[in-house]
Predict the structure.
Amino acid sequence: MKKFWWKILGGLLLLYAVIFGFIVDVPDTMIQQTMRNLFYHVGMWFGMFAMLFVGFIYSLRYLRKFDEREDVVAVEAVNVGMMFGFLGIFTGMIWASFTWGTPWVKDPKLNGAAVGLFIYLAYLILRGSIEDIHKRAKVSAVYNIFAFILWIVFVLILPRVSGAGLHPATGNDVTPVLPMHMDSSMRTVFYPAMIGWILLGCWILQLRIRIRRIKATVNELLT
Amino acid sequence: MLGKEIKFLVGKEIKLELKQKYVINGILLYLVSTIFVTYLAFEDVISVETWNSLFWIILLFVAVNGISKSFAQESPARHLYYYTLASPQSIVLSKILYNLMLMAILSILAFLFFMLLMGNKVINMPLFILALLLGSLGLSSILTMVAAIASRASQNFSLMAILSFPIVLPLLATLMKVSSTALINLEWAGNAGFIVILLTINVAVIMLAYLLFPYLWRD
């Protein structure tokens, strides 16, 4: 039986985050109780970042050795990252409707996040348009590396440089959402939640890779 | 060694283009027709924001059309020949430089023609010219890299557009902000942050192209 302790740990951490996320004290700021969304919205974005980073690393590894299995890991990591990304945007929209009155505003971080999702959607379309397996793997590995670096620039760096915006972490904003500035009571739930989301992402990733491998083996056996 | 190769390759591209004039004529016609269509569509005096956004959208489409052909024109056999002669880094840098020159000329022409038909709204001319140059560099490097990637996939135009639009969007948004301040007043201050952003994007894309192109080229 392969190691599965980390999957149980991930499940337990998320269960803890969901329950204690609603019990722990939150600082009394303008957005009051919706601050609790931080454990889920920001946690999911960290999960997305982790998945896209995995995709980036495996694309680099593919370009070194041209091993097909690493290409499979890269594309499935992007798929899981996309899922987290859409969930993150969805939870963000719910949060925005409460905080700013509307689901979407014109803000550098939001625009950067949307552009980042579009870049990776284009990656998936690119993969769909190439038939030959080796060419597809090579071209998509190159595009993945390109896309990841640009994603970092558009989502993390540009909002900081673009001056003030509504979303936290734009310009010189230091609202208590990053772990450095967070209240210590919130940190007790946030760190476990973040680890829980990342572990969940890894679990889904592993399942998807296994499904792919099984499908490939079945196809080989049938032909 | 790299410099000499690049100079030679850029010269080669220019000579090829002057011989056939295929791309440049097509693009010039495209440019002139789109600007003429916008002139016909807008009867009265238009606002500054409209002028700004129309100009950059037209320039974006001109760029995508012009640069998408840069890898498709030469046959794979000739590409193989170049592979044996020059290093891939010099090939990609020479294509970026050639496309930069092309985009710079096209953007100046677009600006002049736009001024002629839609009126000159630019107040801070040097800042606008700087935005045009940085925009040409950015569009050229991003679209050359995307054209290289798309040329390895199926050869249709829509793939190039799909791949390039998300990457070009932040560049275009920043360019529009800089040029809108150039249209409103004469101040230079406050734009430093945007110009830094433009330079960052340009440098990052060119470095990525330099590092990643050899893997694409090997086919």
